[in-house]
Design goal:
Shape of chain B: globular
Structural class of chain B: mainly beta
Distance between the termini of chain B: 35 Å
Helix content of chain A: under 10%
Radius of gyration of chain B: 13 Å
Number of helices of chain B: 0
Largest sheet of chain A: 7 strands, mixed
Strand content of chain A: over 45%
Order of helices and strands of chain B: EEEEEEEEEEE
Oligomer: heterodimer
Structural class of chain A: mainly beta
Helix content of chain B: under 10%
Largest interface: A-B, 21 and 21 residues
Largest sheet of chain B: 7 strands, mixed
Distance between the termini of chain A: 40 Å
Number of strands of chain B: 11
Strand content of chain B: over 45%
Chain lengths: 119, 107
């Protein structure tokens, strides 16, 4: 079965960077885009961007342009999301998510990774 | 960017009642590329509906989606205890954006 398993919780200081991983199994990693969505405590869902694991092509929400980088390692079926210049407002649960090959809704989600930004 | 506005913010209903949730887009959602998710505390979202009206695999038929263009609706015909949760709409016709959510709570 399809599984997306994310790395563990992180605590970072303001101005630092964080890199969250998302390991895929149960399907061909390079055949489906990976998206990243975050959720601050008690708040709604916020789409951050997508990556095509085959080509490495990416697309980021304008809000995160210049601060976000999505990469992958196809040999271990793992996607990564790195967010830099962290501030307290970046404290949130970060999810990776996957949908069908030709569409961008999400029927598989990782378990979420809590990133806390605090001095 | 397409902005999705969900209403109401909170819906207080009793088990067995009908729930009607609205999602309005700031501009037309191409090809009705509109999805609905359910989220419970501490869990990742769960896909309910895609393409405005297609139920995802394993979703009970008490959940239905309708609408087109800028106005979409999620209907839960008879609320079960496990349906009390937060619901989000998402458009994927032009990039992707989520609505701010509607909480369905027990009255």
């Amino acid at each position: 079965q399809v599984q997306l398993v994310q790395s563990g919780a992180e605590v970072k200081k303001p101005g630092a960077s964080v890199k969250v991983s998302c390991k895929a199994s149960g399907y061909t990693f390079t055949s489906y885009d990976i998206n990243w969505v975050r959720q601050a405590t008690g708040q709604g869902l916020e789409w951050m961007g997508w990556m095509n694991p085959n080509s490495g092509n990416t697309g980021y929400a304008q809000k995160f342009q210049g601060r976000i980088t999505m990469t992958r390692n196809t040999s271990i079926s793992t996607a990564y999301m790195e967010l830099s210049s962290l501030r307290s407002e970046d404290t949130a649960v970060y999810y990776c998510a996957r949908g069908p090959p030709t569409s961008q809704y999400f029927h598989h989600w990782g378990q979420g990774t809590l990133v806390t930004v605090s001095s | 960017e397409i902005v999705l506005t969900q209403s109401p913010g909170t819906l207080s209903l009793s088990p067995g009642e009908r729930a009607t949730l609205s999602c309005r887009a700031s501009q037309s959602v191409s090809s009705n590329y509109l999805a609905w998710y359910q989220q419970k505390p501490g869990q990742a979202p769960r896909l309910l509906i895609y393409g405005a009206s297609s139920r995802a695999t394993g979703i009970p038929d008490r959940f239905s989606g309708s609408g087109s263009g800028t106005d979409f609706t999620l209907t839960i015909s008879r609320l079960e205890p496990e349906d009390f949760a937060v619901y989000y709409c998402q458009q994927y016709g032009s990039s992707r954006t989520f609505g701010q959510g509607t909480k369905v709570e027990i009255k």
